[in-house]
Amino acid sequence: VAAWHYYEPDPARDAWLRSLIAACHRRAIAVYAWLELPHVSEQFWRDHPEWREKTALGQDAHLDWRKLMNLVHPDCAREVERGTRSLLRRFDWDGANLGELYFESLEGAANPARFTPFNSDVLAEFKRQHGYEANLVEPEKQKAFLEYRAALARRLQTEWIGRLEAMQREKPWLDLVLTHIDDRFDTTMREKLGADAAALLQDTESRSLTFLIEDPATVWHLGAERYAEIRKRYEPLTARPARLAIDLNIVERYQDVYPTKQQTGTELFRLVNVAARSFPRVALYFENSILAPDLPFLPAAAAGVTRLETAGAKTVVESPHGAGLRWRGPALVNGRPWPVANLETVWLPPGIAAVEAGQSVAPLYILDVNGDLKAAGVLRDGVEFTYESRSRAYAVLERLPRTVEIDGTPVEPEFLEQPDGYTLVLPKGQHLVTLRL
Asked: What is the CATH classification number for the domain harbouring 118?
């Protein structure tokens, strides 16, 4: 959710967002606060002209839709931190996404009207460090400022990650995501935006966050194969490649492309499929831009199944991250009764799953779960399943169990009632859940 629209409290707007978040949770959908610093909010821009970012021409940095603030100014940074903490406290978020905290300008220093940061605090700091004024005309001095700029972006990103991590002490279930423009496939991004993915990955290696790589606009006209190549370039930069994710922008492209300006149909499905095969998590920007006829096919495109075949009465599915198989009626998975299914789909964990018709229904069905399903089974008096989630998880049950155990310990469960059943709220991490009737 674009959280900057809710930065300042407003009773009507806040009530609407709370109802949206509650509706999402009932349907096992996690909701993240999307932050776009140094854009704070429209009201913040109006209230604090003294803290506005400046371009190299000395103008207020209103670039495209973003109105940028000077986060180097200590008073501005403190006020934005206070407001962001309030924003994260006011709503029942599952996580926060710190997006695009660098200096946007796809033309870099070549276009001073869009080049940032050039506020007085930055210029003074640069002069203290280098002994001369920032200069975009002389090549050597321009190079020095671009290096300073990349280091500043890295510093701001690290500081704000720390500020968001502090919120996890109040809300330990919060997941953190850092959205960062790709500068490994398009190597001009560091010079143009100050983006340095390799350095930031190193800085965050020990931190629990997802590194969401944004597909830069400069390569939107290229084919889906670029996602596998992006993966290859990022894997050596981290000891934990499972924390890498990819962000696809589904919007009109400025390049000459064929057959449509915006990705749709088989082009879109191919992009999503290759991205899902290359990364464990795929984000699509944005839900309102995706064409309605494409929406029903996106889950299948994103499944990333590597093998699908029929062997007698069995359907064999192999997938690295788990998948859903169209299915009606009771099912056996690898010869055992399977309780994770709804009227149309049986949900499978990663690996090889041989699915065949079962003879009897499970005591209770888990209709949906938004965590990563690891295993499941049917017990004499109930069912159990293992999941892993970077935030709270939500499991939709067809009916209420008598007891709930997590990792063998009875708990007082939190249920959210919804039309199709009951949504059980579960803790972050990897856990075994036992449901008894």
From this structure: 3.20.20.80
